[in-house]
Amino acid sequence: MAATTETDTPAVATRGMSLPRIQTRHVVMVLYLVFMLLPIYWLVKMSFQTNREILGGFTLWPQNPTLNNYRVILTDPSWYMGYVNSIIYVVMNTVLSLAVALPAAYAFSRYKFIGDKHLFFWLLTNRMAPPAVFALPFFQLYSSVGLFDTHIAVALAHTLFNVPLAVWILEGFMRGVPKEIDETAYIDGYSFPRFFVKIFMPLIASGIGVAAFFCFMFSWVELLLSRTLTAVNAQPIASIMTRTVSASGLDWGVLCAAGVLTIIPGALVIYFVRNYIAKGFALGRV
């Protein structure tokens, strides 16, 4: 019995020492979540209030919630067309970026050629440059060729930043696929397009999902280029939100409702590709 008591004592002491540490970790996690979710909660709260209630004082939740702000956005073409325009050029940009990045990343991962490392680094430097550097050149170029205020103009401008990032991510995934799979497919009589689509792309599906996610998110939240290269026909929601002023000033309730609706597409994308993102953090260059 004495021996049993002596051996049990360190275990009890260890459990007693680890308990406060676990509680501290939980407290820190809760505080972090509150800090991250508080702006979103405040945005949602204000979206159900009128301007008078918002400017009237501090409240944890509106006393008389209203859906008028959302009704304005969903019934006014000048508002909801901003979401349509954003989705159009974001999808176009994601497809174009992946269509260019997939063969480029395959070449970097499978072949060695003169200047390959320098070219790869040059691609990344394009991603490092701020969008403001290219705003004026793009504006003059698109104005001269008749692409100003079109969806393809914004989509092409965003590929300058998304293609290098997609190539960098996909190259890491492709390098992890053995080259013997390529050779075996060629021996079995597969052409390169058939091999690439039916065999190789499913093997790097996680990388494609991660690259598509980052391309989508950058193009969805980018403001400077999308605002500079559009005027009326292709104006995105981010640009519309920065120009909304009524006779009494900013319409805070409508702006907050627009902000809530702007978060939803990004949240849906994160939900559907969450497994790919987790694999990207574990296996790829994320």
Automatic annotation (TrEMBL):
The UniProt entry lists membrane topology as: Multi-pass membrane protein
Q: Which UniProt keywords apply?
A: Cell membrane, Membrane, Transmembrane, Transmembrane helix, Transport
Q: Which GO terms describe its biological process?
A: transmembrane transport
UniProt xrefs under Gene3D superfamilies: MetI-like
**PROSITE patterns listed in its UniProt record:** ABC_TM1
Chief location bin: membrane
Q: Does the UniProt entry include the keyword Heme? A: no
Compartments annotated for it: namely:
Cell membrane
Tell me where the transmembrane regions lie: 27-44, 87-108, 120-139, 151-174, 195-221, 252-273
Which family is annotated?
Answer: Belongs to the binding-protein-dependent transport system permease family.
Q: What is this protein called?
A: Carbohydrate ABC transporter permease
